[in-house]
Each structure stands twice: as structure tokens, then as C-alpha cells.
Amino acid sequence: MTTLSGADPGASAPVDTAPEDTWRGVATEELSESELSGLGSEVGARMRARSRRLLRSLLRPQRRRVVLAAVLVVVSELAFLAGPLIVAYAIDTAVPALARGDGRPLVLSTIGYLAAGVLNAVTKAGFVRVSARAAQAVLLDLRGRVFDHSQALSLSFHERYTSGRVISRMTSDLDTLNELTSEGLDGLISGVLTVLGISVTLLVLDLPLGLIALASFLPIALLTRWFQRRSRSIYRRTRTAIAALIVQFTETMNGLRAVLSFRREQRNLEIFRRSNAENCEANGDGLVVLAHYAPSVRMVGNLSLAAVMVVGAVQVVHGSVEIGVLAAFLLYVRRMYDPLDELAMFYNAYQSAGAALEKLSGLLEEVPSVPEPTDPVPAPELRGRVTFEAVEFGYHPSVPVLPRLDLEIQAGQTVAVVGATGAGKSTLAKLVARFYDPTAGRVLLDGIAVDRLAGADLRRAVVMVTQESFLFSGSVADNIALGRPSATRAEIEHAADAIGAGPFIRQLPDGFDTDVRKRGGRLSAGQRQLVAFARAFLADPAVLILDEATASLDIPSERAVQQALRTVLRGRTAVIIAHRLSTVSIADRVLVMDHGRVTEDGSPAELVRGTGAYARLHDAWRDSLV
Ligand SMILES: Nc1ncnc2c1ncn2[C@@H]1O[C@H](COP(=O)(O)OP(=O)(O)OP(=O)(O)O)[C@@H](O)[C@H]1O
């Protein structure tokens, strides 16, 4: 299987001693460096291999641009390297020729020098252009993959992972990659080529002097190794810290009403300050390491230049090296350390981007816990018979929420589910909608296991309306049309009228075209629920689940909706989860749940006549109305 990250989970993987769930996907994201190393070196190797696979899969479609960029940069570097050679020629050949009265070599070397400069500039510009295009295409692809994959992951993943962390992957991690590709890549390629080209030229020009100049590579390699070790853990810390900061910020902004009502500002500020300080500290540590590395590289470069100058001068005096060659040598050595500086900067950006890539590839490695069936059963017309067959379920393996449930709901039946808070009512509904898969047993729709139905078929057949009716930015009509995007305006208005939402919508400033603003902020909670009902009615599903869906309505609106519900529910299966018993009156059948089990099952009239929990609940409710 090839995942979205381009990863082949089984391919040439090292053998791990750590169990898979400790390192796969995002499992290592929040671990400290010591916890991570405690998992064993294979885990680190796996994570790096995963990042490389992702990078390869991103670069593959850009092959042509990468090849073109490589050709341009090679030509550009050759032109760049020609400069000091021409200077050497000018000093050693053209100047003596001029002294003899022959100006041609000087004219030739001047034209050559200028031509090399122009060629270098033109090809360099071309390279920057082509490589920037390739980098942007890679980022476009990656951003799309992250968004697509995050949407495809199951609810249980997002409950663990929080939207703030997804946002941080989408923003700060991708920005880091952007910085690397837009600023660092160009420096890397030209830097590597310059260093290689100059090294070869130096050795060819004068072997002993060349070896002296290149001896500096040993301390630079040691310095780089030190920098690499230190910065990797620091950049991991910065990625985690910035994610924590964004999580804290998004949570505060999303729950601003609760924050204000419970006066949590001070507490939130303290938590935010802690994350902010950790982020600053991690970034500061990164800068300190860089501040040691980059000047040290430069220092080594200067020492090397001094050594070449002293040894070269002695050789010139002895006549074993010409003065022009020494001048070229010094120019080359100087030029070699400029890109080394750039390489240090690139390495810095690379370490940071490497940490980001590690997290992004982890997210992309996650697989939905509710996967699409590989060979879905065709289901053009579902009628809505729901069966629970020995279903067991828990959000965490050790905490069973539904210990074992056997249940049959006939097509077209309206079933009310009541019971104490936490009894498992919503869980039952979420299993029908396949937000989760049972840990044992099967949930069936018209005799077909819901995990064998294509996601699109299941979504068409089962619609769930919950208490927090989510509206997207856009008009009221757009939000209703979400139920069936192909619906005409007349059908949208008909759906709104059928559930009694038409009158209030028409009174809005632009009627059905009124913008509901972010998350439906312009409408009251009850109005949002009415819009959600209209959306569900338009979707025309075989099974409609109402989870506390009338809880935000006032009594007159609820009555109106109950009238409408009789119309809405006709001809389809309905599961109504309700605390208010008024809603239950329209049901054919009532299920009373307690600790994940159905303890009573019958028509409302039957259960009221009995002595069970429902009868007691009903008596208490009737007394409260008096
Ligand atoms: N996403 C979740 N992750 C972990 N545990 C959960 C999750 N959702 C519900 N639970 C737990 O599962 C149990 C059943 O919850 P469920 O929401 O099904 O109850 P309910 O009967 O619908 O309650 P209510 O009437 O309050 O809505 C509860 O103990 C709850 O704490």
C-alpha cells in the first residue's frame, strides 16, 4: 500500500524493537529528545527515511524543472569559476605582452572576463526562476496533500490531535519549508558546486598549495557534525513549541465566550506565556548554536587564506609558483568561503525544515481509523433498516462504552433514545453514521455492514443533526444546499418551509441570500438548528439522526419543529436522542439506555404504563409541567 506521503510502509524498513504505535504517524510528535532516543535508534532512522520518501515523492513530478535548474546552475558556476583563471592569465600573460607592446591578450582577457560575468548573471537568473517555480509547485502539492489528508482522517484522530496542531502543520511548518526552498536551495546548489569546482581548480593549478587550502575541510566537517547534532534536537523543540503556542491560541479564540464567562483570561494568559517562553527559548538556542557555527567556519576560512598567502609568497619568491597563479589562488580561496557561509545558513534552514518535514510526513503517514472499503458494496437505494449485531465499542480500548449491543430498527421506524448523561446514546448514533467503527460486532444498514458501503453512499443514506449545528460562511441558501448541492432554489425554499424555517429566513435582511457570517454567528442558536433541519430535510436520507437537535429551540419553535418533524420523518428511519420527553411523543418506539445497554424497549405508551425508568422519567416530566 502506498500512503499519501508516498510511503511504502513495508519497504526496506529497519527492524524495530519499539512497538509500532509508539512511533508511527504523529506518535512521536510530543516526545522530548530523551524519550525519543529511549525508543531506539531505528525509530529515528525510520522517521528520517519517512521524511526523505515524502521529499522524493514531492520532487518526482518536478523532475524536468530540477534537471533544467541543474544545467543552468552548472553553466553559471563554470562562468563564475572562469573569473580568477582569466585574472591569472591577465597578470601572467597579458600584462607582460602589453609591456612588449602587444595589447591583444589584454583585450581578449577583458572581453572574456565580461562575457563570463554576463553568462554567470543570465544563467543564475534563469536558475533562480526555474528552481523557485519548482519549489512553489512542491509547496502547493504538499499543502494540498496535508489539507486533503487531514480532512480524510477520522474523527477519533482529530479528537486527539486538535485543530491547533493541524493549523501549525499547515502554517508554520509549511512556512519553514518555504523559507528553505525560496532562500536556501539556491545557496545550497550553487554553494556545493562552487566549493567542488574551486577545490578541483585549486588542485589542478598547484597541488601542494591546493592541499594546504583544502586542509581546512577537516575542521569544518567536525564543526558541521557538532552543529548538526545540536541543532536537530533544538529544531524539533521549536516545532513542538510553536505548535503548542498555536494550539493554545486557537483554543482560546474558539472558546472565547467560555473564556470570558468563566474569567479564564488570566489562566489562559499564563499557559500562553509558558508556551511562548518555551518557543522563544528554543529559537534562541537555535540562534546561539548558529552564532557559534557560522563565525567558526569563517575563522577556519581566514586561517586557511593566511596559510595559502604565506606558503604561496614563499613559493613565488622561489619561483615555483607564478604571481598570477597565487593571485588566482587567493581569489578562489576567498570565493570558496563565501558559499561555505551560505551553506551554513542553508544547513540552518535545512535543519529547521527537516524537523517540519518530519512532523508533516508523520501526519501524512496517519491512516484513517475508519477507512474507505476497498471493494464497496453497491447500494443505490437504501431503505434504512439498522441492525447492531453484537456490537462492542469504547473510545479507549480499556473503557467499554457499549459492552455488547444487539438491536434492530425497522426501516421507517422513529426511535427515541433516552437515558442518563453518558449512557451511550450519542455513541450509538455515531456508530450508525460510522464516525467510529465498533471494536467488535457489526453495524448494518439494510443488511450491509456500514464499513462495506462507500463513504459517499453512507453519507447520503445517514444524516446526523446535532445540537451544535455548524454553519459555514456563506448565505442561508448555501448552508441549506449543503444537504444536496444539486438542489434548485425552489427546492431549498421548499425544504426551509417544510420544517417551518421559511418565515424567519425571509425576515432576514437579504432573505435566503443573507450571509450567516462566520459559523452562523449572525443567527441565534435556535435559528441555526432550523437551518440545519432544512439541510437534513433537503438531503432526504434513509436514516435521520437527531442528537439533542431540538435542545436549543424555545417551546413554540420546538412545537413548530415537532409538527414539521412528522412531515420530515415520514418514510424514513429516525433515531431521536432527546432529554426533553416532549420530543419523544412522536416516536413509535423508545429505547432507554443505561451504561451502554438497552434496559427498556417498547412503544411510549407501553413504557409509560410500566414501572421502569421511562415511566418514572415521564411522571417527573409531567409533574414539572403542572
Ligand atoms: N470522543 C470521546 N472520547 C472519549 N470518550 C468519549 C467520547 N465521547 C463520549 N465519550 C464517553 O463515552 C460515554 C458515552 O458518551 P455519549 O456521548 O454516548 O453519552 P450520551 O448518552 O449521549 O450523553 P449525553 O446525554 O450527555 O449526550 C461517556 O462516558 C463519555 O464520557
TrEMBL record:
Family, per entry: Belongs to the ABC transporter superfamily. Lipid exporter (TC 3.A.1.106) family.
Superkingdom field: Bacteria
Domain ABC transporter stretches: 386-620
Domain (ABC transmembrane type-1): residue spans on this chain: 67-352
Keyword Lyase: no
Subcellular location: Cell membrane
CDD domains: ABC_6TM_Rv0194_D2_like (cd18546)
GO molecular function: ABC-type oligopeptide transporter activity; ATP binding; ATP hydrolysis activity
Location of the region described as Disordered in the Swiss-Prot/TrEMBL record: 1-21
Matching Pfam families: ABC_membrane (PF00664), ABC_tran (PF00005)
Keywords: ATP-binding, Cell membrane, Membrane, Nucleotide-binding, Transmembrane, Transmembrane helix, Transport
InterPro entries: AAA+_ATPase (IPR003593), ABC1_TM_dom (IPR011527), ABC1_TM_sf (IPR036640), ABC_transporter-like_ATP-bd (IPR003439), ABC_transporter-like_CS (IPR017871), P-loop_NTPase (IPR027417), Type_1_exporter (IPR039421)
Membrane topology: Multi-pass membrane protein
Ranges annotated as spanning the membrane: 66-91, 103-123, 187-205, 211-228, 305-333
Gene Ontology CC annotations of this record: plasma membrane
The keyword Transferase is annotated on this UniProt entry: no
The protein, known as: ABC transporter
